[in-house]
């Protein structure tokens, strides 16, 4: 077997920040998230990922019941002649920025074994042994790239908890064997509802109302939306949104569609109650907790840091869906409807 050169390796190693951000924990987290996202395009109740922190700054990942087709596609494109080829990036970044990587992908009736040293790799394909949908990876971040860096277990657990919420049903188990053995399990079938629970729990006397936890698949996108009013926060708000694993710190189409859908639903309820209200996005968000996530392919992220989602069709879809759900909820829950309407009934046109 010949050693092959990853065509993007030189560029990735020369300009790593262009691909993963900074070269501390954020860069490591992005590198790990790219790999996880590639295998979580399809999940089921048996999907399990185990991540172990070993000595010598080595990470071992064992995944079962995951989608391996994307990873195999990445491997096929590693030596693609086009230097701008991006289909290999999740694997190309990992092997290029690791001093050593061993990867075993059980895909359909074949096993793809990849052994890499700083981007140069040997690939072997053999008949499978009945473990399709399984992935084994062991890698060590290259100290030449990640200077004075050791993966922090607690920070990584925060990342894994977020992933488990954004991909409902997946079970993630993390273990640290570098000192006293630590083990954590993250499994949230309810999805980002758990993130909303955590936000509410920061106030010991929380009394949320007008809470909706929504899930829907519209066209090719899977949505999760959770929100409520939390009056103890007075005029503050708590808003988070995600496109796949990316947190959209500058918002964009997803959160705008959710907000506009809520406003439409409240206006509809007020009209039926014959109550005149004045409502805006700013006023809506006072004392509100809103978390939204969307999963799919080919998102256009814009703005500084690529932290804003630009997707007009997606915005319209989620707006219509949220409007219908809010209108239905307020028609069935009189007490919440009256509290919400009164919140906007004191300012007149």
Features of the shown structure:
Ribosomal Protein S5, domain 2, five-stranded mixed β-sheet, 16 strands, Topo_IIA_bsu_dom2, Ribosomal_Su5_D2-typ_SF, EC 5.6.2.2, DNA topoisomerase type II (double strand cut, ATP-hydrolyzing) activity, ATP-binding
Per CATH, which architecture of the largest domain? 2-Layer Sandwich
Radius of gyration: 23 Å
CATH class of the largest domain: Alpha Beta
Mean of residue pLDDT values: 89
CATH topology of the largest domain: Heat Shock Protein 90
Structural class: alpha+beta
Between the first and last Cα atoms, what is the distance in angstroms? 76 Å
Which shape, going by the Cα principal axes? elongated
The largest sheet has its strands arranged as: 1-6-5-4-7-3-2-8-9
Organism: Chitinophaga dinghuensis
Family: Belongs to the type II topoisomerase GyrB family.
Pfam family, one: DNA_gyraseB
Protein name: DNA topoisomerase (ATP-hydrolyzing)
How would you describe the overall organization of this protein?
The chain is of the alpha+beta class and 349 residues long. It folds into two domains: 4-187, Histidine kinase-like ATPase, C-terminal domain (Heat Shock Protein 90); 193-342, Ribosomal Protein S5, domain 2 (2-Layer Sandwich), CATH 3.30.230.10. The chain is built from eleven helices and 16 strands. The protein has helices at residues 9-14, 17-20, 25-39, 69-76, 89-96, 153-166, 193-201, 253-272, 281-285, 312-332, 334-342, and strands spanning 4-5, 48-54, 58-64, 98-107, 110-117, 120-127, 134-141, 171-176, 182-187, 209-218, 221-229, 238-243, 246-247, 288-295, 301-302, 308-309. Strands 1-6-5-4-7-3-2-8-9 form a nine-stranded mixed beta sheet. A five-stranded mixed beta sheet has the order 10-11-14-12-13, with helices on both faces. The longest helix is centred in the last third of the chain and has 21 residues, at 312-332. The protein starts with a strand and ends in a 7-residue tail after the last helix. The mean pLDDT is 89.
């Amino acid at each position: 077997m010949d050693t092959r050169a990853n065509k993007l390796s030189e560029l990735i190693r020369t300009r790593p920040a262009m691909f993963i951000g900074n070269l501390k924990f954020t860069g490591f987290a992005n590198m790990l998230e790219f790999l996880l996202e590639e295998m979580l395009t399809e999940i089921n109740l048996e999907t399990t990922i185990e991540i172990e922190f070993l000595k010598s700054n080595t990470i071992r990942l064992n995944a079962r019941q995951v989608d391996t087709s994307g990873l195999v596609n990445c491997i096929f494109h590693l030596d693609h002649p086009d230097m701008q080829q991006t289909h290999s990036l999740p694997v190309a970044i990992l092997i290029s920025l690791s001093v050593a990587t061993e990867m075993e992908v059980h895909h359909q009736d074949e096993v793809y074994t990849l052994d890499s040293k700083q981007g140069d790799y040997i690939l072997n394909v053999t008949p499978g042994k009945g473990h399709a949908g399984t992935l084994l990876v062991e890698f060590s971040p290259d100290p030449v790239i990640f200077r004075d860096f050791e993966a922090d277990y607690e920070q990584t657990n925060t990342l894994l908890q977020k992933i488990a919420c954004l991909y409902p049903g997946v079970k993630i188990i993390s273990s640290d064997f570098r000192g006293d053995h630590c083990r954590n399990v993250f499994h949230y079938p309810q999805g980002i509802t758990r993130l909303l629970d955590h936000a509410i729990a920061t106030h010991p006397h929380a009394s949320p109302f007008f809470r909706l936890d929504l899930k829907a698949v519209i066209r090719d996108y899977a949505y999760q939306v959770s929100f409520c009013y939390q009056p103890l926060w007075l005029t503050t708000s708590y808003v988070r949104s995600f496109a796949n694993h990316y947190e959209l710190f500058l918002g964009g189409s997803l959160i705008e569609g959710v907000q506009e859908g809520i406003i439409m639903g409240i206006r509809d309820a007020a009209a039926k109650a014959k109550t005149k209200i004045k409502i805006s996005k700013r006023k809506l968000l006072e004392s509100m907790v809103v978390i939204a996530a969307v999963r799919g392919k080919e998102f256009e992220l814009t703005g500084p840091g690529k932290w804003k989602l630009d997707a007009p069709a997606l915005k319209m879809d989620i707006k219509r869906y949220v409007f219908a759900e809010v209108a239905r909820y307020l028609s069935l829950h009189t007490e919440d409807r009256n509290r919400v309407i009164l919140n906007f009934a004191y300012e007149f046109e």
